[in-house]
Structures are given as structure tokens and as C-alpha cells.
Design goal:
By secondary structure, the chain is of the alpha/beta class. The chain has 11 helices and 8 strands. It has a single domain, classed as 3-Layer(aba) Sandwich (Uracil-DNA Glycosylase, subunit E), CATH 3.40.470.10. The strands form 3 sheets. The protein has a 4-stranded parallel β-sheet with strand order 3-2-6-7. A two-stranded antiparallel ribbon has the order 1-8.
Length: 216
């Protein structure tokens, strides 16, 4: 616990602000628990949608089977994934939004506009940026968004190499993966290669010196 306390104390002020945010309290089904993973040393940035109920309970994003699938796509272990010097994870919504008839509700609309412009630039220039799921694709690749995840993800060669668009790894997308076999046959191997290169770049990255880190 003492080590965790020291880690929290080293967090940038903006991260502590996010963790303390209760702006959407009245709209959330559970008490606010903003979840993110952040270090300006991280060579890879993941922007996804919002934590699910298991992530909310654990205090760690992608702490569920969708996280297992995402880590498989990336070709990394759970330890590497949750190492903030490897991956920064900045969801479109930091709190669990609840569920509806079709699964988890969308990220709260207040969240990304309020916090992302202040937080994301602190990463500098990550070697690799992954936008995961419709909400992140629509927000950050708006010029490509025509209403379908498939169209954006299928253009991955044109969008890359620094940015890779991905579908959400939810089990609800199993049908999408079957219909789009090119994703796991072509994009995933290229993604793993880019992840390996980005992680290998850490030893020569000047941002690693005295950068500090944080992890939820």
C-alpha cells in the first residue's frame, strides 16, 4: 500500500483531477470511479470507449474477456499491457456508464471534450496510437467516419503506420470478426509488428528520464 501511495503522489495534477471528477455522478448507475492508465513515457496510446462493470469493480480498464482479446491482438501479456511505461489507456469516458438493451451504454458525452484536450498532449508523440471502437474512431478519425466501423478499420493501411483503427474486442463483435476475416489475417499481424517496434523504442526515448507514471 505504501508503494501504491507513492505512485499516486507522483501522478500529474491532471490525472489526479480526473480521478476526483464527479461531474456525471447523477447520470451514472454507480458512484464515479474514473479509470485510466497514464504515463508520458508510454510509447503506445490506446483510446477506447468506457470501462465495463468488471473494469469498474477492479479499477483497471479492459479487466474482462474483451481485454484478453485485445491483448491477443496486440501480442502482449497482461503484465506488459498494464505497465504504464508501455501503454497509456485513455478511454472516451472514464467511468462505467451503465447498461442498456444492447449492452453497455455509450461513454458519457461530457468526458472526452472536458479532459482529452488537457491530458492527451502530455504524452507528446507516442510511437503508436490505437483507436478502439466506434466512439474513439468517430471522435478522432472524424474525416474517415461515414457511420461504419468496418469502413474505417478497412482503411488501416491508408491511415497508418502511426495510427491503427480497431473494432472493439467485445464478444458481441464475434460475428463481425467472422465476416471480416481479413482483420485477423492481415491487420492483426501488422499490428503486432508495430507494437513490438514501439515497445522496443522505449530504451532510446528521452521521455523515459524522470517522467513518472500512473496506473489505475
Amino acid at each position: 500500500m505504501a508503494a501504491f501511495g507513492r505512485s499516486m503522489a507522483r501522478e500529474p495534477a491532471i490525472v489526479r483531477e480526473i480521478r476526483a471528477c464527479t461531474e456525471c455522478r447523477e447520470a451514472l448507475p454507480l458512484p464515479p470511479r474514473p479509470i485510466l492508465q497514464f504515463s508520458r513515457r508510454a510509447p503506445i496510446l490506446i483510446t477506447s470507449q468506457a470501462p465495463g462493470i468488471r473494469a469498474h469493480e477492479a479499477g483497471r480498464t479492459f479487466w474482462d474477456p474483451s481485454g484478453d482479446r485485445l491483448r491477443d491482438w496486440l501480442g502482449v501479456s497482461r503484465d506488459v499491457f498494464y505497465d504504464p511505461s508501455c501503454f497509456a489507456i485513455v478511454p472516451m469516458g472514464f467511468c462505467y456508464p451503465g447498461t442498456g438493451a444492447g449492452g453497455d451504454l455509450p461513454p458519457r458525452p461530457e468526458c472526452a471534450p472536458r479532459w482529452h484536450p488537457r491530458l492527451v498532449p502530455r504524452l507528446g508523440e507516442p510511437k503508436l496510437v490505437l483507436y478502439v471502437g466506434a466512439y474513439a474512431l468517430r471522435h478522432y478519425l472524424a474525416d474517415r467516419w461515414q457511420g461504419r466501423v468496418t469502413d474505417v478499420v478497412a482503411a488501416w493501411r491508408e491511415i497508418g503506420p502511426r495510427v491503427v483503427p480497431l473494432p472493439h474486442p467485445s464478444g458481441r463483435n464475434q460475428g463481425w470478426l467472422r465476416r471480416n476475416a481479413w482483420f485477423e489475417a492481415e491487420l492483426v499481424p501488422a499490428l503486432r509488428s508495430r507494437v513490438r517496434r514501439a515497445l522496443a523504442s522505449r530504451s532510446s526515448d528521452p521521455r523515459r528520464t524522470g517522467a513518472g507514471s500512473s496506473l489505475s
